[in-house]
Amino acid sequence: MTESHLAEHRAVKIALIDVPSGRRALDPNWVEALAEDFKARGQRTPIELLQTGERYRLVTGGHRLAARLRNGDVTIDAIVKQWADFASEAEVKLAEIVENFMRRELSVLDRAFDVAAWRELFEAVKGTVQRGGDRKSSKFKSATLIGDDAMELASDRFAANFTVAAQKALGLSRDAVFRALKIARIGESIRQRIALHPIADNQSELLSLVAETPARQNAIVDRLLAGAVSVSDAIAILDNLPTPAPRMPWERMSEGFSRLKPAEQERFFEAHEDAIRLWMASR
C-alpha cells in the first residue's frame, strides 16, 4: 500500500459527509446524550469515513455524527480511509456491523439484521450464497430469506466459526443465530416503522410478528403504533377477537428473559442449573 492510501486522522467538514441508506435508525436519546458529553469532554472517538472523490461516505459513527450536528458543529474528528484500505464493498459494510456489535447497544431488531448481514457476507466470501440482485430491487431475494430447514444449516455453519467463548460474548450461538435470521425476515419498511418502538427490543414479540404475512405485519404494526400493547393484542383487534387473557407468570418471565443480554441469560442459566438439569433429564 502506498503512503497516499494510509488512513488519515483529521477534521472533516460535516457538510461533505454522505450517510448511506439502509443504516439502522438513530436513537434520539443516545444522540442527545452524546451531544451533551461532547460539550463537556469533547469527541474522544473519531468516526470512520471513506473518501469518495471530494466527498466522504460514513462507515461508522452515525450517532456521533448526529450529535455533532445537534451541537451545531461544522467539522467532526474522523479517520479517513481510501478504497484501497478495503478489499471489497462487503468489507466496508462489515466494518459497520462489527463496530455495532462491539458497542453492545443494538436493539434486538437491529442486532438480528446485523447477524443476518454478517452471516450473508461470510457465506458470500465462501461462495455458498447466491445473491439475487440489489436489495432495493423488488426482484431481490436476500440470502437471509431462506426456509427454516436451510436456516438451520446456515445457523450451524455460521456459529461454528466462533469459539465457545466468542459465541457467549457476542451472543452468536447456533440458536441465537437461527432466531436472528428469522427476525431478519421482517421487511425493511416495517423495520424502519418499529425501530424505535418497544417491540424492537422484544425478541418474543418480534418472532410473533414475523410469523405473520407481510400484509398482516403492516396491519399489526399500525395497531401497535396506535397503542396496542402486544402483537397478540393487535391481532385480537384486527380479527375482532376477545382481548387475550392475562398472561401466566411463566409467560411474563419468558418475555423478560428474552430481553436479557446474552451474558445475563448465561447467569440466569447458572442460577437455575439444577432445575434445568432435572427438566433435561425428564425429556
TrEMBL record:
Residue ranges occupied by any ParB-like N-terminal domain in the UniProt entry: 10-101
CC annotations in GO: chromosome
SUPFAM superfamilies linked to this entry: ParB/Sulfiredoxin
Gene3D superfamilies listed in its UniProt record: 1.10.10.2830, 3.90.1530.30
Gene Ontology BP term (one): chromosome segregation
Pfam annotation, one family: ParB_N
Entry protein name: Chromosome partitioning protein, ParB family
Native organism taxonomy: Bacteria, Pseudomonadati, Pseudomonadota, Alphaproteobacteria, Hyphomicrobiales
